[in-house]
Input
Amino acid sequence: MVTASSNRVTAEGSALLVQNVSKSFPAADNSQASTLALDDASLSVAPGELVSLVGPSGCGKSTLLRLIAGLTAPDSGELSVDAEPISEPCAERGLVFQDPNLFPWLSVRKNIQSGLVARGVLHEKKHEVDEFMRLVGLETFADAYPHHLSGGMAQRVALARALINHPKVLLLDEPLGALDAFTRMRMQDEVLRLWKSRGTTILLVTHDIDEAIYMSDRIVIMTARPGRIERTISVTLDRPRQRNSPEFLQLRGQILEILHFAGASVGAAEE
Amino acid sequence: MNAPVEEVKRESRAQMPARKISLPETTKAPLASRAGARFLLAVPVATGIALAVHFWASKNQPAPETHSYTSFLWIILSASIVAAAAQFAWSYLRRWMQQMAPIIAAAIVLLTIWEAVTSGFRWLPMPYFPGPAGVLQSLIDDRAVLFDSTWHSLLLLLSGYFLGVCIALVTGVCIGWFAPARYWGMPILKIIGPIPATAWVPLAMVVAPSAMFSAVGLIALAVWFPVTMLTASGISNTRASYLDVARTLGASRAYLIFRVAIPAAMPNIFIGLFMGLGASFLTLVVAETVGVKSGLGWYVSWAQGWAEYGKVYAALVIMAVFFSTIMTVLFKVRDRVLVWQKGVIKW
Output
């Protein structure tokens, strides 16, 4: 472990501010028409906070993440990290996708150190590569190529590759979505452990409501067409959380109700 | 930390060798011993038949011309018998023989048929179709000139190929990466590229200061088109998510081009390099036939001019070995560079 897990004072995280951001994309079949992917979204994330974005597909959660990463520019509104406006991608905002997107031509070690190479600091920070490989438990696979790794291992490499830059904000776009249920639950604990030890601000996009409740301080619920932030729910349960505790299940019901997926048994969600 | 070991896929490298070794010992062993006699006898029997046919056919041939081929067959016969004995002690040789014996035997049978048809029955018009003995004799008699020709061909081929590849990589990366370069470059590529390089021979002879110079240029042109085309398409088809990831890792434009786009395009680039190599062989032989006064292409047309068809075929044999070797070298380089890919075709 790099830092003592209790030491939250040395938090690396930054405050994140999203103000009235809208983004539309031209429709695929017609250049005149356009889809409003994100409509007037505002969000404020405190340093070191773990916030989940939950919602059906097409609700603009991935778009919001790409905007924060700086990979796309908003049509209107402002995004800033520690009061500095976001204009282009930068190593301070790490991004991990559902597909690990490891560079297949690089070994595990070289994938992890690619962030250092890209920033031209490999020479000074070479010792950190081993630290991060140990952190995600992949020391023995240093020279393996990505196609030899299982989904869970590849995703851990992707996490280490993003973390080695010490990002102030870590953007996770359904990073555990492609994993089987057991690997996913184990990886949730690993992400939580990394988050606690480093105090990084994390924005987690997920389809999985349980995952959102289990992991986050706050859950931002979004709805589709147009993509909107519907409501924000604080999760105050103590960690480690019990996935089958009454409070957990109650929160789950509440979120399903907001998303209109509750069904008949939970209550009259539909008017 | 959870032990990651159990997560390793079954196909992981660590387990592959163990499985490969265990297969022949358990399942394949009885099969191998049953087929044992066949793979041991294939080459000696084929060579024996070849010798018999050769003695019969050479009765109506001048003695010196048949001497080398007789020795050649005797060497193969004794080598195959020695190998058949040695393989009982040396398992590597045994495996190699199981693999190669049928192919070698088939090659010897083909030589035998060739000899029977040409020197034996004389079914083919004689000066144009010498038997294997005649070709082997020409190969040995003219070895100095043939070696010199091969050397010149190699120099010409390599200089043209490397010049073409270097230019093609630059143009390919530019066309693949930069939109203005694509806008202006693609039409030129589409119009100039498909013209076979050999079609430029008349122009090249007029423009270039020497035949050698024009040959290098023509080979470079022949290589340039496929390598540029495939490099450009490889670069422009780089998965957007790799570039996105790299950008969020703090990558500069140089990093995106040289450390993401070019490695991602490598499999494509190698396809271009193989296509270019084929085109360069063709252009080399044509250039040597019409202009350059050295090399294997020149040797073939020179020998044909003197109606020495044994030498023509000798040069063809050398060309086959020469081009195949170069191809093999490129495959080896590819395997080394693309070691990260799974399931690459073996040469």
